[in-house]
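Researcher: Sequence recovery benchmark, item below. Answer with residues only.
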C-alpha cells in the first residue's frame, strides 16, 4: 500500500481479513482496525469461505469494528481532501513516515506505521497476542486522537498500550483536519455541519484545507464544480480563505464544532465569529484546561463554508 502510493496509485487496500481460508478472530479484528484506514476499505473473501464480516463474530467484535469505522467516516472529509490533492498535485494519501520526516533516519525503515497525509499517524497492532505496540513518534507535536491530549513525546520510540478494542491514532500539531459526524451512509452524513480539529503546533499555529463537491459527479474538478477552502490558525484566531467556489446551493455545507487542541491551561471564556458580511456572532465555548481542548460551537450560526469567516477566542 505504501509503495503503490509512491507509484501514484492512491486508492488501495487489501481484502480485510483475507480472501482465502477461514479468518481467525483476533487477526480479523486487528485487520478491521487497520483496514478502516485503507483508502479502499472492505471486508471481503472468496466464495465458499466462512463469513468474516463484523456481525458474524460476536458483540465485542462488532462494537470494536463499529467504533473504528465510525472514526474512518468521521474523518472522511480529511481523506477526501487528500484524494483531491493526490489528483491535482500528485501527492500521496497513505504515506510512510519517511515521506514527511526525510531527515530522520529512524523513519526510513518503518513499515508497520503509516500516515494519512501529513497529519494522522496510524500505529496498528499487527502480531498475535500483541497488547503493546512499539511505535515511533517523529519530531513533532503529537496529540492522541482518542483523548485530544498532547502526548509530550517526540523523536522517540513509544510503548503504546493497545487492548483488543483499540488502535493507536495520533494527530500532528500544526494541522487542521475537517471532520463530520457520520450517519448510516454518506448521503446523510454530508448533510451534517462540518467540524474542524485544529491541532496547534508548538508556536500555536495550524494549517489545513477542505475540498467539497456534490459527492456523486464525475470529474467535478475538471468541470470546476467544487469548493476548495483553506484554514489557518494563529494567535488565537482561526480564519478561512475560499480558494475556489463552484458549488450549487444544494451542496452548500455549514460550519459546526471547532475543536482546538493544545489551547492551553488558561481558561478561554469567550469566542466570537465574524462572517463574510462583517457581522459579529458570539459562540458557545467549552474549555477543558486539563486536556487543553477548546470546543467552539458555531452550529447554530449557519456559517457557510463557501464564504470566508474568522473566529477569535479570548482568555479571561
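Model:
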Amino acid at each position: 500500500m505504501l509503495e503503490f502510493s509512491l507509484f501514484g496509485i492512491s486508492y488501495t487496500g487489501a481484502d480485510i481479513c483475507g480472501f482465502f481460508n477461514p479468518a481467525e478472530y483476533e487477526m480479523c479484528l486487528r485487520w478491521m482496525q487497520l483496514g478502516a484506514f485503507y483508502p479502499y476499505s472492505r471486508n471481503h473473501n472468496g466464495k465458499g469461505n466462512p463469513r468474516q464480516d463484523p456481525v458474524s463474530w460476536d458483540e465485542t467484535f462488532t462494537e470494536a469494528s463499529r467504533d473504528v469505522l465510525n472514526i474512518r467516516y468521521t474523518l472522511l472529509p480529511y481523506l477526501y481532501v487528500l484524494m483531491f490533492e493526490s489528483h491535482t498535485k500528485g501527492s500521496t494519501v497513505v504515506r510512510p513516515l519517511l515521506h514527511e520526516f526525510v531527515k530522520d533516519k529512524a523513519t526510513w525503515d518503518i513499515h508497520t506505521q503509516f500516515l494519512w497525509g501529513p497529519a494522522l499517524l496510524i500505529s496498528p497492532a499487527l502480531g498475535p497476542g500483541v497488547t503493546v505496540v512499539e511505535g515511533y513518534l517523529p519530531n513533532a507535536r503529537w496529540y492522541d486522537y482518542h483523548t485530544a491530549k498532547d502526548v509530550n513525546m517526540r523523536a522517540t520510540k513509544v510503548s503504546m498500550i493497545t487492548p483488543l478494542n483499540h488502535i493507536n491514532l495520533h494527530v500532528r500539531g500544526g494541522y487542521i483536519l475537517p471532520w463530520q459526524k457520520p450517519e448510516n451512509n454518506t448521503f446523510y452524513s454530508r448533510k451534517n455541519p462540518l467540524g474542524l480539529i485544529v491541532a496547534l503546533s508548538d508556536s500555536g499555529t495550524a494549517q489545513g484545507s477542505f475540498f467539497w463537491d456534490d459527492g456523486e459527479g464525475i470529474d467535478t474538478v475538471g468541470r470546476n464544480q467544487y469548493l476548495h477552502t483553506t484554514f489557518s490558525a494563529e494567535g488565537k484566531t482561526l480564519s478561512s480563505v475560499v480558494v475556489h467556489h463552484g458549488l450549487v446551493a444544494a451542496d452548500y455545507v455549514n460550519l459546526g464544532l471547532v475543536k482546538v487542541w493544545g489551547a492551553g491551561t488558561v481558561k478561554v471564556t469567550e469566542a466570537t465569529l465574524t462572517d463574510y458580511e462583517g457581522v459579529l456572532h458570539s459562540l458557545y465555548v467549552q474549555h477543558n484546561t486539563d486536556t487543553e481542548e477548546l470546543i467552539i460551537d458555531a452550529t447554530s450560526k449557519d456559517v457557510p463554508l463557501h464564504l470566508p469567516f474568522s473566529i477569535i477566542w479570548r482568555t479571561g
